[in-house]
Amino acid sequence: MISAQLRDAAMVVDLKALKHNIKQQQAALPVNSRILAVVKADAYGHGAVPVANAAKEAGVDGFCVAMLDEGLELRNAGIDRLMLVLGLTPVHYAPIAALNDISLTVGSTSWLKEYAELAKHESLPPLKVHLALDTGMGRIGFQSVKEFKEALDLVRQPVFVFEGMFTHFATADVADDTYFKRQLQRWQEFLDTVDQKPPYVHMANSAVGMWHRETIAANTVRMGISMYGCNPSGHELPDSLDLRPVASIIAKTTFVKHLKAGESVSYGATYTAQNDEWVATLPIGYADGYLRRMQGFKVLVDGQECDILGRICMDQMMIRLPESMSVGTEVVLMGTSKDKTLFATDLADYAHTINYEILTSITPRLLRRYQD
Prior knowledge:
This protein is α/β, with parallel strands linked by helices and 372 residues long.
């Protein structure tokens, strides 16, 4: 997909804010703690390579991606620090990871045995692995201590480097910590079986790094949504770090018209003016990831809240202006205009979703403009 260079609409990515957020997390952790920057899904829509380079400058120890292809993209861009694939990778693709110094997540002894057999017939460097533990997320990982102990024996083979072990919490971002504590206890049971711990032991996601720092039985934090300046809980828990939003969405009006009372706007004529008003068109729509269900929400124009009128189209949308304004007027769909701010969480609340989905929904067609 092309990135539209020749229209006045963009996601503005503030790399200085990203570095600030990383420094905030670093300062809140014990000395010598490590941070792995989570840059999966194109860095939550912000752009994997520019974000990874900025995070590297801020001092992170490595990166987490969701799939091997994402790790290869960063390796090909010259990112040379630890690169962990958080999802499971089919065994037959694992040699590619070994050859590119990309670490893989493993959650079963059968996978380790199959790879060990495959590697006997290949001239490969040792494969770096992180053992995933299912303490209650119910997604991937070892569920029993017995199988985990067997895995610990298998990863001592020369074809492997036992680089890390980790778990993931399902409820670290909610006020009720009952289930979190249950997972934490289970994590400790697994941890107690390891005589010689690997270099990277990580159980803390953004939420643990913000609200459960005293419970961190590990040396590494995986910093995800908080790195991008968003609260993992939405509004349920107050920010415990001074986070700054990294992304803004800004467009300029392409057309302005005077709409008379009784006239309608957009598909389905779902909006009809009750009074004469000024309406502007913006060159952005749901094909750019600005969700169709945002109809009726608001944008900011010169620090004033302005309603979105009618259905959002694939490539355009319409807003009510407070007065007649010229074509080319700047409109903030997410971000700050004078003393008002629309956060990703505000958009998420209106769309009945989470800030993660708002950010990752923005398609590559919308130009990313970087500021540092």
